[in-house]
Amino acid sequence: MVKYPIYWVAILLSICYSTSIANAEYLKYKDPKQPINARIRDLMSRMTLEEKIGQMTQIERSVASGDVMNKYFIGSVLSGGGSVPAAKASPEAWISMVNEFQQGSLSTRLGIPMIYGIDAVHGHNNVYKATIFPHNVGLGATRDPELVKRIGAATALEVRATGIPYVFAPCIAVCRDPRWGRCYESYSEDPKIVQEMTQIIPGLQGDIPHNSRKGVPFVGGQNKVAACAKHYVGDGGTTTGINENNTVIDFHGLLTTHMPGYYNAIINGVSTVMVSYSSWNGVKMHANYNLITGFLKNTLKFRGFVISDWQGLDRITSPPHANYSMSVLEGIHAGIDMVMVPYNYTEFISNLTSHVKDNHIPMSRIDDAVQRILRVKFQMGLFEHPLADNSQVHQLGSQEHREIAREAVRKSLVLLKNGKAAEKPMLPLPKKAPKILVAGSHADNLGNQCGGWTIEWQGLDGNNLTQGTTILKAIKKTVDPKTEVVYQENPDSNFVKSNKFSYAIVVVGERPYAETFGDSLNLTIAEPGYSTIKNVCGAVKCVVVVISGRPVVIEPYVSKMNALVAAWLPGSEGQGVADVLFGDYGFTGKSPRTWFKTVDQLPMNVGDPHYDPLFPFGFGLTTKPSKDY
Ligand code: GLC
């Protein structure tokens, strides 16, 4: 007979209790020593449908809060273009906002961290005092993948300085018609240059380990960020460049013109791919199963997650949101894993939940999406490091990064004309001269030289948007102290003649724009640009610097100029323009685009049978640094 049986029962219960406590403390998915696949399987086995659909939901920061994150198990938050915690918010303010949302996610039953994404497409461009690098068209002109990789690394540091681990970049569009409002987001009309510039991905994310499996997402540490190759696929090929419209091309043409950048992006371990608003041969990309699931996931073996564009599901129909429930069904079925809703998340969650419960969408599709999202989050260490601290705030806008941007500006400049016939070259300009004129709407305007996607989605006019150096200020810093620099935005020819300037620098171009707002059928520059060229160049020796996101109408005025420079959208470091104008560095840039004579030639790209450009793809005169003269 066992003596005192009650004690044995108590001991047994206490052993069971302590074991269960031990088990409760040990959750395999939270163990970083476990293989990622094991962590994914363990976590997935614990998740409810609600928690899984929450992971697939990305909402805009303006509708997010700790409570919303907790209640709906939201997997991701974003800043839309210009969406900031406060005007001119400090990095500390960004960090506390991101951490507030994260605390909400960590307080859920399973504590799955959310991932915060933002458009850092030419530096951390939403953020006050961040370094603003040249837009992609200018980087394409550098022909320097190593430089672009350094830009990626610098951008990652500045993004992390604000507590954010994910960027919707790079745009690897192949713009085939400069009438497209997003052409400046494209590195080139040539897919080979776009492929080379995907080196920004290892800059952003880190170099993938040699033994990495192809297609597996990779982010190498807390000073790197998850990247996003966009917009899949053919966004730059729409008819007459109409944004979000239809790309008409056969499958071979799609693969050889618009797809190559994705091969390199996947080989470089890109973590996410964003779907294009556009259609391919009439089929909306957001509803294209064959290209998203069939080709990107099954053929190219992409194993990160596919994210929709902003209201991308809504725009499957025309008018948008016309049959949202059907759009949700089509988009998720096509293979979209995370939906940038970004506002009506309860409707999205409700629609998707119904589709699963009604067996319109199989659980296997939901599990594929969630596994991909968790794979990115586990691999990049988000479970181990979900919260940011202020230790890296000094990286934002650092002088070191500004020097990289200045180098990029120098290398992006394309010299299209240097001296009239039988004249000696005008560039480089002498630093010593009695009096010089600087003119034009873009000479002293930081907003104009940065372009769209800068502080605000559409960019801004003027000089108080952020920290940087205008081209005028750079010129003043570069010339000899005894040289008088006179600035007049739009002088008349009498003023120019009467002042007997040694020479003039005229800086004109396009006003900032983004996306559809930049679509243009006439491709003219902002007034009074052309009249400034006429007034100044008709009265004194002049070099014209064009600030634009693409080739623009310039042919009728070239004969009036002594020299012509394409500066694209240089960003905050205007000093790079002066460095080359005055010969501290030579011109090396090569045009990444065909420069047309008239818009009725468009579309016209290198390799076309009828090719009659003003300046051909790859054109760029060179100069040696002054000290070599
Ligand atoms: C925009 C753009 C996309 C951007 C997203 C989030 O509409 O198409 O490039 O990443 O929305 O701002």
UniProtKB/TrEMBL annotation:
SUPFAM superfamilies the record matches: (Trans)glycosidases (SSF51445), Beta-D-glucan exohydrolase, C-terminal domain (SSF52279)
Biological process terms in GO annotation: glucan catabolic process
GO molecular function: beta-glucosidase activity
Keyword terms, alphabetized: Glycosidase, Hydrolase
Family annotation (Pfam families): Glyco_hydro_3, Glyco_hydro_3_C
Source organism, top-level taxon: Eukaryota
UniProt domain Glycoside hydrolase family 3 C-terminal: residue ranges: 413-622
Glycoside hydrolase family 3 N-terminal domain span: 48-376
UniProt xrefs under PANTHER family: BETA-GLUCOSIDASE, PERIPLASMIC BETA-GLUCOSIDASE-RELATED
Stated name of the protein: Beta-glucosidase
Native source species: Spinacia oleracea (Spinach)
Lineage: Eukaryota, Viridiplantae, Streptophyta, Embryophyta, Tracheophyta
